[in-house]
Amino acid sequence: MSFYISLGVGLLGFLPLLIVLWKHQRIKNLKKTGILVTGVVEDIIERRGYKGSRYYQAIIQYYVPGRGTIRSSYVFSYGGKKPLYARRQSVELYYRKDKPEKFIPKDAKPGKAILIFVIVIALVYIVLSFLLYDTIKNTITSG
């Protein structure tokens, strides 16, 4: 029983890591298989997030053959950084052929800081799972 509880805690720590790795892979695949076009930043919207932190949302317009002009949004610049884009700026982007409204700017890079953070979280959960296993095992054997 204690093994399964500690295993569950350890696996729970890997969940954020798996999500971040999945997103990194998705970006990599879209850059490899997506269709490259040039879009235009139609608008920049400043938003407020958790505890008033500032981030920006760009509304980008681009043309897709057979579908016409598509307007889609892209969130960027977390943590109060200045906007990466300006209104009427041209932006190269990759979109999915099967879902053209899903796109990623050509210059987008996966967040390495987030990856390092979730690796640390996974390691902490592994250590906690071992400590929990020892604690539960000692409690059961002494009781």
How are the SSEs ordered, and which strands pair?
Elements lengths: L1 H32 L1 E14 L5 E11 L3 E9 L13 E6 L7 E3 L6 H31 L1
Antiparallel strand pairs: 1-2, 1-4, 2-3, 4-5
Order of helices and strands: HEEEEEH
Distance between the termini: 15 Å
* Strand percent estimate: 25-35%
Strand order of the largest sheet: 3-2-1-4-5
Number of strands: 5
Number of helices: 2
Uncertain stretches = none
- SS class: alpha+beta
Shape, please?
A: elongated
Helical content band: 40-55%
Describe the structure.
With 143 residues, the protein is an alpha+beta fold. It folds into two domains: 1-33 and 108-143; 35-95, no CATH class. The protein is built from two helices and five strands, in the order αβββββα. The chain has helices at residues 2-33, 112-142, and strands spanning 35-48, 54-64, 68-76, 90-95, 103-105. The chain has a five-stranded antiparallel sheet. Strand 1 (35-48) and strand 2 (54-64) form a beta hairpin. Helix 1 packs antiparallel against helix 2. It is elongated. The two termini are 15 Å apart. The mean pLDDT is 83.
Short structural description:
Helix content is 44%, strand content 30%. With 143 residues, the chain is an alpha+beta fold.
List key phrases describing it.
2 helices; 143 residues; 2 domains; five-stranded antiparallel sheet; 5 strands; alpha+beta; elongated
